Amino acid sequence: MAFLGSAIPSEVGLRLLLCPIGSNIVIRTACCTVGIGLPIYSTFKAIEKKDRNEQEKWLLYWAAYGSFSLVEVFSDKILSWFPFYYHMKFAFLVWLQLPSGNGSKHLYARHLRPFLLKHQARVDRLLGFLSTEIEKFMSTHDGEIQFMKALVVKCATTANQMLKDITHPVRPQGQNMIEGPSPPTRQETHDSGSDADN
């Protein structure tokens, strides 16, 4: 009976994941979780443990995932129309991480590394050129950049204060929220009358 109780949620999960029509949101969430969420945590653990093998594994994964994401940026709008595209993407992301398949290591060694070695000089020249142009732009427009930075900080501070005022309104002293301003006390009435006499 305990087996039946644990089998039902997994069967429902598999049906949601594999149903081609109703699971678009589910499968995309699963892709994000498997492709980004779990690897972030696994990378964190590899760094904290100082395990060189795990660090290399996750470096290879991020290189493979980054190259896949770069290709996907240009092809996603077309490929997403194909049936089971996100299911295939999910399977690919799982394959990249599985220790038995060594998918990311295979992709890096067979495709990514040879491509980058072949084009390394061009990529370095391009990155050097872009770096120089960005530095020129930053130095030329330093005044505008500082102005925009100050403006963003001021807007963020104002928005934060407005949010605080909305969430924690400050009541003016002597004012009841339901009844409005409190009536003047007897002392205040007497003092105002003596001022009028003078």
From TrEMBL:
One of its GO terms (cellular component) is membrane. Its main location: membrane. It is a multi-pass membrane protein. InterPro entries: TB2_DP1_HVA22. Signal peptide: none annotated. Residues 187-198 have a biased composition (Basic and acidic residues). This is HVA22-like protein.
